[in-house]
Amino acid sequence: MRDVVEKSGLNRRRWLSGAFAVAGSAFVAACDSVTHNPVVQQALRMAHGLTYRAQRLILPREALAPEYAEHEISPDFKPNGSTNPMASDYVALRDGGFADYRLEVGGLVERPLSLSLAELRARPSRTQITKHDCVEGWTSIGKWTGAKLSAILEEAGLRPEAKYIVFYCYDALNQQEDGPRYYESIDLVDAFHPQTILAYDMNDQVLPVPHGAPLRLRVERQIGYKHAKYIRRIEAVESFDHIEGGNGGYWPDRGYQWYAGI
Ligand SMILES: Nc1nc2c(c(=O)[nH]1)N[C@H]1C(S)=C(S)[C@@H](COP(=O)(O)O)O[C@H]1N2
Ligand SMILES: [Mo]
Fold first, then answer.
1. 82 CB within 6 A, ligand 1
2. Of 166, 229, 250, 256, which is best to mutate to test ligand 1, by the most ligand atoms within 8 angstroms of its C-beta?
3. Among 48, 61, 129, 244, which is most buried by a count of CB atoms within 10 Å?
4. Which CATH fold would you assign to the domain 2-254?
5. For residue 97, which of 209, 243, 247, 184 has the smallest C-alpha distance?
6. What is the pLDDT along the chain (262 residues), one digit of tens a residue?
7. pTM of the predicted protein model
């Protein structure tokens, strides 16, 4: 949480207070539903040294990202980064039509989960048409349907120490089987955001391999590289010091910001 405040910077603060002023009652409702969530309340209570002023900076992050109309969907949404993972465990799942896929949910949770795609599709879901914003400077609009991450985390039951959610992926960006695999992480404010979903459909079709089949994160208030594709496992952690380079993600380990809010 402290990181979030330090990295947010002055311009961002100004932008946020402006956004807060103009967003009106829809924003207040969205804000309320998340801040009344018991897990988020607990996270806010626990956050070490988090002052009232810092909370005021964080809470506007609950505003919804803009949503678009069907006719605005990009006909040519660009696949980026890994588009066809080569790891043998992934190739085996893909060749079996992902029938044997299980999403593992573990770490600092009361009830670890192992969910098939059918089980994920039976969980509370959300559909949204949003603009994806890549750090390389392009954007595309797509329609996403997926399981609400908040519902999955409530089902697993976060333990009080949990502060971040880590997403471990199947792909190694160098396309070698032994290369470091992609991973990303988000805090609990983003994890419980109403537009944060584990997407299994894109533009009303089953999520295609180039865009992260069978399951990818949509975390709409964050830039492109936070949207982990090819998710293998989710882990609730207290810190990511012990994971890979210790910066909470494949690109953050290579110098990109961990907090990349938009
Ligand atoms: N597992 C994994 N997730 C990833 C990437 C990746 O290479 N591997 N690339 C990221 C980047 S930089 C972007 S812009 C988006 C691209 O998503 P898309 O392929 O659906 O456009 O995925 C993000 N998530
Ligand atoms: Mo990106």
1. yes
2. 229
3. 61
4. Sulfite Oxidase; Chain A, domain 2 (3.90.420)
5. 209
6. 334 433 333 344 333 443 433 333 333 333 344 545 556 655 555 554 444 445 445 557 889 999 999 999 999 999 999 999 999 999 999 999 999 999 999 999 999 999 999 999 999 999 999 999 999 999 999 999 999 999 999 999 999 999 999 999 999 987 776 789 999 999 999 999 999 999 999 999 999 999 999 999 999 999 999 999 999 999 999 999 999 999 999 999 999 999 989 8
7. 0.81
